[in-house]
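Ticket #4471: structure output looks truncated?

Reporter: J.K.
Steps to reproduce: submitted the chain below (465 residues) through the standard prediction queue, then opened the result file.
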Amino acid sequence: MNRRQWLKRSGTQIGGIALASLLRGETWAQTHFAPRAKRVISLFMHGGPSQLDLFDYKPGLRALHGQELPASVRGTQRLTGMTSGQASFPVTASLFGFQQHGNNGTWVSELLPHTASMVDEMCIVRSLHTEAINHDPAVTLLQTGHQQPGRPSFGAWASYGLGSENDNLPTFVVLLSRGSAARPADPLYARLWGSGFLPSNHQGVAMRSGGEPVLYLSNPPGVTAGMRRDQLDALAQINQTAQREVRDPEIDTRIAQYEMAFRMQSSVPALTDLNGETEATWEAYGPTAKRPGSFAANCLLARRMAESGVRFIQLYHRGWDQHYNLPSDIRLQCGDVDRPCAALLRDLKQRGLLDETLVIWGGEFGRTPYSQGKLEPTNYGRDHHGRCFTIWMAGGGVKPGIVYGETDDFSYNITRDAVHVHDLNATLLSLMGIDHKRLTYRFQGRDYRLTDVAGEVVTSIKNGM
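Returned output as attached by the reporter:
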């Protein structure tokens, strides 16, 4: 036995116990304190929605529209390559109107009338910030706690820390939709829902909108369920023999994943069959809900997954990177998501699921208060902006009907209650009953966690605090 084999064997003595638990469908969930949220639905608007045109109302910009952004506001901030060479940075007021909604008179853009009707269920955070200024590092930081690839995603950490509520479905599921904006969507990489250095059974399972919902799940022609069962039993014996020899925990994971795939052959088709939904439900989610792969259809699937005990449900909606033609593109993007988001919250609430389901909406950063390129009377673009942006949350122990944090008159800098992305992730884990400093995994001699070496729980947005 060489050194590598000895280390594997001596460091993984619980492998057999873990495998037996996985095959029996038991979870390893042990929260550090009483959880408020049993599951998460993350509605990720990939590309960076403009806070100025949606949730961070700045009426004073109308009087400054077209004037140069004061140098004192921008300071020494690093700019992206798209606007760093601009000779001018004209202040750009939103083209869209805002109205007050809900018991607290929360300002919301005319682009989101259905979402606005649900503000009494929401905590809107206007003071999120990140140091990343380009898409890939910003999304990677928000999803994994680090700008460089290779670390586990939030969903993988949730799976690792809390385990499964359903023996027959994955703990972490990913759904993708493409927005209606004319602009080409930025790429998404599977590592954003990957498990990194965690065991591979914690990675997200991406469901497809056409053909088989999960690739390679169905038996090929001529292979019956009984034949597949016999094959898996024989394969398990071979893998267990290998496990006794090398004590590699990934072998246990592989066996468990084969068993999960076998159970998913019946559970996934039942989950994705929407024929039993009522006409009232279809009407609530809107006309695009019957189009597979649309954001509306994915929201409806997310509700069904929440009902079925899927722990972490990640929806990515692409097309929010509006460097130009923002007014036309953001109308289209909001048309995609406005009605389904409101319907999802109502649906969860009517079914008694919202209190224990944490719903999050937002992107990787916001947009600048100055125009990228030429400012025209009815057209403009906005560059990336990480110093302040807006998200909203609902359910799962979040304090409803509040706005947290403030930005300056330009929506450029935070003036009160700043929330870094590490603070956000620490708070989300806290709502799930997890101390972010204690959810760790030892890898290459270091204890890693989702929030890296930072993050503070924002207690002010937790209900009952």
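Triage note (M.O.): checked the attachment and the full token line is present. The first strand starts at residue 39 and ends at 46.
Status: closed, working as intended.
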